[in-house]
Structure formats: C-alpha cells, structure tokens
C-alpha cells in the first residue's frame, strides 16, 4: 500500500466506501479554532511557505527543539528559508508522529506536492509551494472555499473589539465566521498587574468604569450581549481544572477589591473568584442558548526560562495530572441545581480521563436536547490517531456516538483543515472495519447516516448553524 494513497487509514472495503462516498465531501464546521479574525477579514495572503506553515505552530516548534535545532531557527531571527530548511531537516525524524501525516497531507491538499519533505527535496518543495502561494486563489477566502468550510468559530476575549467580525459579516465570504466568548483573563486576580490592565481594556470597550465586582459583571454581561449580536453561540474556558470552592457576592467583592488595589490574592481566593465567575458565565450561556466548552487539564508554560524569553503559546506546555472529577461534578451540579446548565462540551487532555469525562456526560443529560452534554474530540496532545480512537471508543462505550458533534482543528493555522479528513478517515475505518467483522450491522444506509451526522450534521443542528 502506498503512503497516503486513497486508502490511507482505511483498512476494510466498507471503511473505504464510507469515506469516499459519504465522509469525504461533507462540509466542515470548525467550531473551535484560533484563526485570526483580522486575517479572515482582510483575506490575508502569505509571503512564503515558512510564513504560512511555521509561524505560530508550536506543534512543529516542539519537534524542532527535540531534534536539536537552535531557537534561532524556530522563533528567532533566522530567515524564512533557513527556518524552512530546519523543518525539512526535522521531518524525516518525525516518523510515527502525527506531524509526519499532517505535513504531507498539507503539502498534497494545498500545494499538489506528493514528494516527501527532506533536506534533499527542500529546494524543490520551497519553490513549488511558493509559486502556488502567489496564485490568485491562494488566500484565506480561497482556502475556506476550497475545503468547503461552512463555519469557523474563532476564539475572542471579551475585551477584544468585534470590528473584524463585523467586516466579515458584511463581506461576500460564504463561510460563516463567528466569535467565541473566552473570558479567561477575568480569572487572573492572582496577577494584579495583568488583571488590572485587562480591566482597563474592558472599561474602554464597554465605555464604563469598573470599580466594584458588580461593575465587572455588568461589563461582562454587556460584552456577552455584544457577542450574541455578532452571532456568537459558544463560550470557552481553558482551565487546569474546574473551580470547586463556592463563593458568594461578599467574598467575590473582597477578592476583586484586593486585586484592583494590587494586593496579593491567595490560590484559594483565586479559585473562589473563578467559581463565582464561572457560575455567572454558565447562567449567561444558558439564558441565551449558547454552548459552553470546557478545555480542562493542561499545565501551561511550565519552563520558566523559556516562558520569560518567549512568552505563552510557544510550545512549553504539557499534559496535566490534576484530579478532574469531583470539581467538575461540583461545577456542573451547581448549574444544574440552579436550572442554568447550558449545552456543554468537555475536553480532556490526559487520556486517563477519557472514561471519566465520557461517563460524566451521561450524568448531566436532561432530555431537553439530544447530546446536550458532549464528550469533545481528542484535543491538543490527543488530536492524533491513537487519541481520536481512544475518545471515540470511550464515547461509544458510555454514550451515543451517533449524537457526537465531531472534529475541530483548535488551530492557529489555515493549513490545518486536512485534520478533518484525518479524523474522518479514522472514524470511517473504525465503523467500516467493525461492520466488515460483523460487529456492526451490514446496513450501509444506517452507517452512512452515522458518518454524515458525526462529520457535519450533528454540529449544524447542535449549534443552530
């Protein structure tokens, strides 16, 4: 079997038929990513292959460092061609890492290049890809159209302006691009300097003074309303774990006042304040019919020296081992008790939590919406073949795979849409191979419905797109 041929990851006749006849051409609902609204609004173009392929991609940066490449050729001042050469030298060492698959799927799907990347082929690929980048249709809007992207959900802070989203909405772009409400900076009361700088931005965007915790809630409510008017239907939180220490208005006011005055806030106080706001956000989301995403578990920026040098989102994060269950039950249970539990998607980063999260969804379904509480797709360190299969198996064993809202890229790169193809091949192989072994019914129509729903139909219905 040739590498990355039409049967890539498809190991049975029914698997191949499901992918090519059903999954392959389904529209993409990339409901959670970190693409730039500005680049979408301006229909951005790229200068060269390094610009579009290596900038901001901490997945690649980690492998470059692991291969002994100096930081000068990763995030430093080396030329784009030199950085690309460093990546070409690294790719042959990535065998069995999903990056090897993704790299060559991207070269094929975007640039029509079937040559494997190596130091020997770097010049040829650099020139061929750059020539393709110069063609008129190789721009943000052209990519979204080429990959049949029906919807993109960006990730936006409440203090961010929404002017780029307004420009996109008023453009001729067929893809629906919607903001996602990500208010994590509101929790940073233990970092008064950063917290107060963020409060000042929030004051400016809401044209209000924020002197008391009640003012903060009013400003956040205003931005929640503004996001809703801009089409937002999802919120998101990235946490090591859910907060679990109850906090009333009086305690929240005391903690907020300390942070505003630049006084130290303890870890316990931060958790209480985070719980206070998370309940508030959950009630907001439920009232508007939004879906709340909870990305739980990573240890971020664990290398102090490199964090000081490069800042966040540079590849110095890892899988965390916080105990997730009890805190998550406390949070979801609090919202359920108050009649304010919105639709929720739970994402874990530690594979040990697969069955914990999958089973947790069943404990909070209430029959109001099919699949109201979702076990989200394999995320970050788990968005590869093994991680996706583990997630699909845990979900299938404890709940309804047929109601799953499917894959997302969680990416900052416009070259990441083949990850949907990657997921679809894995899904079709799982279902098709089991059917060919007699573990699922020999009913192509029923299997086709499951595949089409998980690829796109469920997301379209669940999010109201």
TrEMBL record:
Its EC number is 5.3.1.12. One of its GO terms (molecular function) is glucuronate isomerase activity. Signal peptide: none annotated. The keyword Lyase does not apply. The keyword Transport does not apply. Belongs to the metallo-dependent hydrolases superfamily. Uronate isomerase family. This is Uronate isomerase. The lineage of its organism: Bacteria, Pseudomonadati, Verrucomicrobiota, Verrucomicrobiia, Verrucomicrobiales.
């Amino acid at each position: 079997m040739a590498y990355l041929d039409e049967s890539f990851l498809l190991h049975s006749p029914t698997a191949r038929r499901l992918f090519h006849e059903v999954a392959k051409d389904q529209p993409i609902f990339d409901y959670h990513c970190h693409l730039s609204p500005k680049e979408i609004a301006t229909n951005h173009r790229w200068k060269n292959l390094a610009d579009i392929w290596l900038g901001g991609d901490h997945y690649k940066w980690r492998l470059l460092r692991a291969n002994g490449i100096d930081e000068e050729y990763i995030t430093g001042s080396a030329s784009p061609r030199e950085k690309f050469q460093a990546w070409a030298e690294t790719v042959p060492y990535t065998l069995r890492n999903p990056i090897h698959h993704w790299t060559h799927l991207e070269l094929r799907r975007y640039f029509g290049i079937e040559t494997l990347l190596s130091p020997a082929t770097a010049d040829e690929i650099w020139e061929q890809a750059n020539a393709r980048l110069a063609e008129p249709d190789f721009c943000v809007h052209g990519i979204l159209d080429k990959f049949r992207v029906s919807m993109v959900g960006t990730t936006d802070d409440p203090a961010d302006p929404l002017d780029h989203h307004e420009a996109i909405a008023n453009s001729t772009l067929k893809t629906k691009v919607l903001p996602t409400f990500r208010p994590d900076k509101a929790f940073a009361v233990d970092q008064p300097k950063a917290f107060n700088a963020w409060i000042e931005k929030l004051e400016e965007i809401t044209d209000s003074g924020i002197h008391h915790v009640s003012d903060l809630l009013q400003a956040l409510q205003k931005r929640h309303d503004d996001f809703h008017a801009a089409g937002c239907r999802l919120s998101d939180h990235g946490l090591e774990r859910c907060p679990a220490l109850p906090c009333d208005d009086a305690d929240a006011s005391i903690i907020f006042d300390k942070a505003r005055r630049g006084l130290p806030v303890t870890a316990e106080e931060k958790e209480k304040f985070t719980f206070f706001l998370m309940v508030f956000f959950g009630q907001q989301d439920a009232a508007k019919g939004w879906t709340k995403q909870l990305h739980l578990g990573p240890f971020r920026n664990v290398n102090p020296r490199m964090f000081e040098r490069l800042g966040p989102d540079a590849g110095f994060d890892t899988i965390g081992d916080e105990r997730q269950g009890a805190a998550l039950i406390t949070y979801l249970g609090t919202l359920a008790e108050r009649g304010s539990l919105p639709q929720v998607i739970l994402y874990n980063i530690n594979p040990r939590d697969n069955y914990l999260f999958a089973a947790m969804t069943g404990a909070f379904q209430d029959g109001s919406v099919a699949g109201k509480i979702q076990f989200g797709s394999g995320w970050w360190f788990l968005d590869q073949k093994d991680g996706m299969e583990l997630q699909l198996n845990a979900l299938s064993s404890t709940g309804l795979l047929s109601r799953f809202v499917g894959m997302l890229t969680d990416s900052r790169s416009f070259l990441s849409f083949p990850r949907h193809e990657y997921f679809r091949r894995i899904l079709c192989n799982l279902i098709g191979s089991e059917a060919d072994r007699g573990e699922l019914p020999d009913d192509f129509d029923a299997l086709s419905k499951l595949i089409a729903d998980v690829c796109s139909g469920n997301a379209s219905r669940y999010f109201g797109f």
